[in-house]
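[Meeting: bench + compute handoff]

Bench side (C.D.) handed over the final construct sequence. Compute side (W.E.) agreed to return the predicted structure before the next meeting so the bench team could plan truncations. Sequence as handed over:
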Amino acid sequence: MTSSPEEICLHVCVTCRQAGGPDDKALRPGAILHRSLIEALSQPDAPKVRVEPVECLSVCKRPCTIAVSSPGRWTYIYGDLSADTSVETILDGLRRYAATSDGLVPWRERPEAFRKGVVARIPPFKTSSAA
């Protein structure tokens, strides 16, 4: 069973910041990236994705960090993204992810930032049936 593109969720760590970066959460690169992605994903040609801000993805040494998930698909966590330059790369990656039935985008077909910035790949959750 595959999920529809509307079920794709982009989690954006809004607390991500570089060492010594601003304490004000609204000025942190993760929060800026989140706002930029909300704006970009509101455009008519943008992939259909739900954006969820998260307080921390525990990848603090590799900001900015996002996670892409969808029911029945693999989940990916990506780090080392830039609030200033990564929006189009993320949109490209989301389009490729949405085009799969299982979330597995071949390594060579991923945007370069996704190839270099992958932190984790998590298998789809399966429900167990009680016997």
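W.E. noted at the follow-up: The two ends are 22 Å apart (CA to CA). C.D. will use this when planning the next construct.
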